[in-house]
């Protein structure tokens, strides 16, 4: 946190502390714009990681590849949608390169409430890289302290401060299950909850103070 001390020389010397504002980013999507406040004090590692991807324009052209209406919308890594013609090669080619995984900050007491942002991860606790999700309802079971949690929890690091209606539009898009095939046509996996029409993250940029 940046702090400033103001010296007042007329009526003696007084000190004051001014808290720096949290970073804010603007997520421009093919369905509208979402503005998000990032909780830098509570989730310093996560926010620094997220902003490094933002500054590298890593998210430009990625998609919300997983949408579950009464759960969350997830994006941050894939640069094109999936169809039943998608092969393993196509799938791997669509993935963006990521940096090192980060420490899970789910102990920060921020809860997975509606319209909060949290980091997506594998079953490994400290495996989050670039993927994030926006909660579309209160998902208390994702909190570390919840008795229904996996014991690790998902780290919240921001909250939507404008554009909630856009999140609501995204969460209501039609989805499908895509069958992933190898080059010989054999089925190697399935992806559920894939938007029929891709929801594109056109860009994510920091909002500068005016």
Written description of the protein model:
The chain is α+β, with helices and mostly antiparallel strands. The protein has one domain (24-206): Cyclophilin-like (Cyclophilin, Beta Barrel). The chain has helices spanning 44-55, 88-94, 164-171; strands at 24-29, 32-38, 62-68, 72-75, 116-119, 132-135, 156-162, 175-181, 187-195, 200-206. The strands form 2 sheets. It has an 8-stranded antiparallel β-barrel with strand order 1-2-7-5-6-4-3-10. A two-stranded antiparallel sheet has the order 8-9. Residues 1-17 have low confidence and may be disordered.
Would you summarize the structure shown here?
With 210 residues, the chain is an alpha+beta fold. It has 3 helices and 10 strands, in the order E-E-H-E-E-H-E-E-E-H-E-E-E.
Q: Which percent range fits the helix content? A: 10-25%
Q: Structural class of the helices, strands and pairings?
A: alpha+beta
Shape: globular
- Alpha-carbon Rg, integer: 20 Å
The succession of helices and strands, N to C, reads: EEHEEHEEEHEEE
């Amino acid at each position: 946190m940046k702090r400033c001390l103001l010296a007042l020389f007329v009526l003696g010397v007084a000190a004051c502390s001014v808290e720096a504002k949290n970073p804010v980013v603007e997520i421009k999507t093919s369905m509208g714009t979402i503005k998000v406040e990032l909780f830098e004090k509570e989730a310093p590692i996560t926010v620094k990681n997220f902003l490094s991807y933002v500054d590298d324009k890593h998210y430009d052209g990625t998609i919300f590849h997983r949408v579950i209406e009464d759960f969350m919308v997830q994006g941050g890594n894939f640069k094109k949608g999936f169809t039943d013609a998608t092969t393993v090669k196509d799938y791997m080619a669509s993935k963006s390169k990521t940096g090192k995984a980060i420490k899970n900050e789910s102990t920060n007491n921020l809860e997975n409430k509606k319209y909060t942002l949290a980091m997506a991860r594998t079953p490994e606790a400290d495996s989050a890289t670039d993927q994030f999700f926006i909660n579309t309802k209160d998902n208390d079971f994702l909190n570390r302290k919840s008795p229904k949690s996996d014991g690790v929890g998902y780290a919240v690091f921001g909250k939507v401060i404008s554009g909630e209606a856009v999140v609501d539009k995204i969460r209501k898009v039609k989805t499908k299950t895509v069958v992933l095939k190898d080059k010989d046509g054999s089925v190697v996996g399935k992806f559920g909850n894939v938007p029929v029409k891709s929801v594109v993250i056109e860009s994510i940029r920091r909002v500068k103070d005016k």
